[in-house]
Write a structure and sequence with these properties.
Blueprint (H helix, E strand, L loop, with lengths): L1 H20 L2 H15 L8 H36 L6 H21 L10 E8 L4 H20 L3 E9 L5 E9 L3 H5 L4 E8 L8 E13 L13 E6 L15 E6 L4 E5 L5 H24 L18 E6 L5 E4 L5 E2 L2 H5 L4 H19 L1
Helix pairs in contact: 1-3, 1-4, 2-3, 3-4
Amino acid sequence: MEHLISLLKQMKERIDGLMERLDLNTKSQQAAELDERSSAPDFWNNPDNAQKIMQELAKLNAEIARWQSVANRINDAIELAQMDDPSLLDDLTTEVDSLQTIVDKLEFQALLSAPYDNENAILAIHAGAGGTEAQDWAKMLERMYLRWAEQNGYKTEILDRSDGEEAGIKSMLMSVRGEYAYGYLLSELGVHRLVRLSPFDAANRRHTSFAKVELWPDIQGEIDVQVNEKDLKIETYRAGGAGGQNVQKNDTAVRITHIPTGIVVQCQNERSQKQNRERAMQILKVRLFELERQKQESQLASLKGENIDANFGSQIRSYVLHPYQMVKDHRTDYETGNTGAVLDGRLNEFMDAYLRLRVERSQGEKV
């Protein structure tokens, strides 16, 4: 029993510390205030605002209940264990194992507590300099993220893709939908470097290729960004690539250029031109929203880091396939020799290391 009590007390310390760091007391006060506002007689006079408040209230209550439930289970288990009743040993052992799994999961999810971490994500890949080599590498990265999403229960949708002349892709844009998609994928933002023996070089020489990954939170609903139609250049074109009978017949794909900023957004995945335009406008607003946040908060790199060129020296991660096998993240120093697994989507260890580093840095800034 002493061993179980020790484990439970350690879990209690972890949960209490996490609840304090997440400021659950303040969130409980916020939930109480929202609940009081929802009881006002005129609350539903503005249905849109009322719905937003109710959604926020539900989100806060769910988070608070999740943490309090685990804390209560741990306290109850400690009380039972301190009774020192041998007949309870098997049940308590099972409960401790279950709580350990839950606490580990909550501890990891607590790393994803920054704004927009729980949003869906829009991910873009751009081939760097190097022609076919870089375009093939961009295609490999696309496959890696699609595999990661599939393995972790996320839904993906290719919104736009520009194929390479010989192989690979010049660029692509996809949405990733699911819990904490943006928070997890934030670790992938930046330049990725590949070193390998080139399959496109007759002399079988070693080549280095680069590709850049961009990421935005796919904020749902209305985004508080004003877009003047006069600032937009809207073009339509025929969607390319495989996609059925309708792909090459009509100009359903849409390209929107925001003239003041130079931001270009393309979408060709939807069936109709109207749907593609609506989706492209949503993505444009997300990007403009992020741009404004960067202007207002100079320290903010949590939505999108520096816009750096896809060239040597700026990479966040290197994938070396020759003369040895190694994938190394240059921010966290996490590395593995299992390159095949990584390129098949095994990225969670890299994401975990990055999230822990992000939390350490944020805590250091508060000190």
